[in-house]
Design a protein that fits this description.
The protein is α/β, with parallel strands linked by helices. It is 39% helix and 20% strand. It has helices at 30-35, 63-80, 104-117, 137-145, 160-166, 174-184, 203-215, 233-239, 248-264, 283-289, 316-324, 338-349, 363-383, 403-412, and strands at 39-44, 46-47, 59-60, 88-96, 119-130, 150-156, 190-196, 220-225, 268-271, 274-276, 294-297, 302-305, 308-312, 330-335, 356-357, 387-388, 392-394. The protein is globular.
Length: 417
């Protein structure tokens, strides 16, 4: 799964800014972009418990549900395999849910299925999302033996009261133990997830969690602003007024603290919600932001392949049921027009700290971007909403947290609006 988009509270009056230095160190740079070519995503819809904020497709792990998922996955692989002939995947990502709840035997079965059907590049980045409490020596050995070379640890907070309120079942010490254990088992790339601006969250608590996360010595940090989702316990409480979010100014202040704390620790932003040490960008997620092809398998999985987008049925029962009936597993499917592709390029690319680069897109697609947005780019540059770079345009660093405001402003002034 791609790291969730940060929620932007509101757009302030945007002051005029001078042109940026084209040699800005903000990532991703050319090397990181070149490595993010073609991605494969697998959704594992099982969790030990339901976190109070989570809206992703998931359910309890039972033997019946697990076997139905595996059978469905085998069917979807047979369906999608012919589409991927000739493609070599530069990244593979196991998201969820909680992929780390799979046993060693079942994970080995999963990798055998994938490697038998798809060409995974020898130097591919293979990421597995893991909850700290599920990280164990035997599983780490299995993951390594099957090619996993990057772990994404979902910590969310290091505050005991916050962990309880969020429905997490690990304590504040477990992420540290899990990262140390991963290091002893040969994992050189580890990312940690945090969340901020949920009900009751304070700047003091966030500072402590950030410090603890960075002290783990990881290479990558994903930090998401809480998004209220109807149908989740915490989201429903917020919508009913029983829980209150930090206000817009408080959210912006938390993000500013995130940026400054990460900078002091040697972490640079390469996307609104993602910070890393030099060269440690998540290759898989960059495939999404650069709008490159990615094939996706499993319930709720979204794919973009050869100019077509699809979204699988959200629930395991609906996804598996469709496949059992010999039907396609997706609920939505569309052929992307050049105009819509241009919209996607702008929407996704401007979330990158180094922004839109002409060289990332073939000539016809880039021409569609210019035809649709060229005048809007120039107007935004005049107002300081965009900065020109040697490669294209980017959003000024001071306005990254409200990037959606600039993107919406551009969309309203595009030739397709």
């Amino acid at each position: 799964m791609v790291e969730r988009a940060v929620q932007h509270p509101r757009g302030p009056d945007v002051p005029r800014h001078p042109l940026s230095d084209p040699l800005s160190p903000d990532g991703p740079g050319a090397d990181a972009r070149a490595r993010a070519r073609t991605a494969l995503y697998v959704h594992v819809p099982f969790c030990a418990v339901q976190c109070s904020y989570c809206h992703f497709s998931k359910g309890p792990l039972t033997s019946l549900a697990l076997e139905r998922w595996f059978t469905g996955l085998e069917r979807e692989v047979r369906l999608r395999e012919p589409l991927a002939r000739g493609a070599s995947f530069s990244s593979l990502f196991f998201g969820g849910g909680t992929p780390s709840v799979l046993s060693s035997r079942h994970f080995g079965r999963l990798m055998t299925l994938l490697r038998g059907s798809f060409a995974i590049a020898p130097d591919a980045e293979i990421t597995l999302e893991a909850n700290p409490e599920s990280v164990k020596p035997s599983l780490l050995d299995t993951w390594r033996a099957n090619g996993v070379n990057r772990l994404s640890m979902g910590a969310q907070s290091f505050e005991p009261a916050e962990l309880r309120a969020l429905g997490r079942i690990h304590d504040e010490h477990r992420p540290d133990a899990a990262v140390r254990l991963a290091r002893t088992h040969g994992f050189e790339r580890v990312s940690v997830d945090l969340m901020f601006a949920y009900p009751g969250h304070t700047s003091e608590a966030f500072a402590r969690s950030l410090t603890r996360a960075l002290e783990l010595g990881v290479e990558h940090l994903s930090c998401y602003c809480y998004i209220t989702e109807a149908g989740t316990p915490l989201g429903d409480a917020v919508l009913a007024g029983a829980q209150v979010l930090p206000d817009d100014d408080a959210q912006a202040a938390l993000y500013a603290a995130l940026e400054s704390t990460c900078a002091a620790a040697g972490f640079a932003p390469y996307e609104t919600s993602n910070f890393c040490r030099p060269g440690a960008e998540a290759r898989h997620n960059l495939t999404y932001w650069l709008r490159r092809d990615y094939l996706a398998l499993g319930p709720s999985a979204h794919g973009l392949w050869r100019g077509q987008r699809y979204a699988n049925h959200f629930a395991l029962a609906d996804w598996a049921g469709a496949l059992e009936q010999g039907e396609a597993p997706h609920a939505d499917h569309e052929i992307v027009t050049p105009g819509h592709a241009a919209d996607e390029i702008v929407l996704l690319g401007l979330r990158l700290a180094s922004g839109l680069w002409q060289g990332d897109h073939e000539g016809a697609l880039w021409q569609a971007v210019i035809e649709r947005y060229g005048d809007a780019f120039l107007a935004a540059q005049t107002q300081g909403r965009l900065e020109a770079t040697a490669q294209g345009w980017r959003i000024p660093a001071a306005h990254r947290f409200v990037a959606d405001d600039t993107i919406a402003w551009l969309a309203a002034r595009s030739s397709g609006s």
